[in-house]
Amino acid sequence: KTGVPVAPVPDVPGYYTVTIDQPGHYACTVELQCPEPTPSGLVEELLGTGTQPGALREPVCPSGYVSQADFVCVEGEFRLRLLDGTLSDTEPACIPTPYEPEIHFFRLTHCARMDYGWRIKEIQIYADRECTEEILDGGASPVTIRGEGPPAYPSANGIDFTSDLLRDSDMDTAFWSKCLNCNPYTLDETHGGAVMVDFTTQFADAGSANHDIQCVKVTAKATDDSGDHALKQYFPCCAKLFRGWNRVDDFASSGMIDPSGFTEVW
User: Fold this and answer.
1) Are 166 and 195 within 8 A, CB to CB?
2) How far apart are CA 195 and CA 237, in angstroms?
3) Closest Cα to residue 53, out of 19, 16, 25, 95?
4) What was the pLDDT predicted at 246?
5) Where are the beta strands (DSSP E) in the chain?
6) What is the distance between the alpha carbons of residues 118 and 176, in angstroms, rounded to a whole number?
């Protein structure tokens, strides 16, 4: 089978000139026009005009979805043409908008009284729910301690217990809360409210992409520093982790009951 040159006749729609330079048997076929397409599935509207072969229609997707293809008139019907140029009868025209992680901020606090203070060795964040893909930032993620006056227990014998130790990737160091008898709410002038640990996922490299945080792991001390490392509860029996977010021009409040405040709690 050998094709021959075909050209449309100028100013005469539907007529073509066929150039034949040798004898033989020839079959002439014409690609059908397509019927007017109608939106289906998640497609709300089809933009474009024309039903001739090769005509294109652009799908309009609902909020939260984006188009991954357009519709092209092929062999008498509009078919989905993916971004790589392939035709598909099974792929959806609209797909969920890809998630772009915001800069999250977290607040960790306790729901029960502690009688020996809160001593946290490390706060680790992970990109997977199984807590295996740790996101390391070299301590660039700022940590702020709120709710109980000075942020940490005073230094002793040249050893610091500051919040910088919460993200230093070292389990041999620990942040110590200033309070020893730490209550989840204010009792009186001598017994302040809860310890609140605030940290974000905005790292030192401003050009890097934000991370999709799927797991946060908090490791606390469970033994004292005596020679026999006696068991001691330096952690609450229950705690809460609040998650909020901020975007470039839209910042969430750090207030727990503010309508624009934290969006999720565990």
Assistant:
1) no
2) 14
3) 16
4) 55
5) 6-8, 16-18, 45-47, 56-60, 65-67, 69-74, 77-82, 87-88, 94-96, 103-110, 119-126, 143-146, 175-176, 196-200, 215-220, 239-246, 264-265
6) 6
Does this model's pTM top 0.70? My answer is no
Please state, in angstroms and rounded to a whole number, the distance separating the CA atoms of residues 94 and 259.
32
Token pair listed for 44: 């709300």
Distance CA 43, CA 40 (A): 6
How far is residue 61 CA from its own chain's centroid? 21
Which residue's entry shows tokens 């302040």?
192
**CA angle at residue 101 from 218 to 146, to 5 degrees?**
40
Report the Cα–Cα distance between both ends of the chain, in Å, rounded.
69
Rounded CA-CA distance 195/182 in Å is 7
Average pLDDT across the chain, whole number: 79
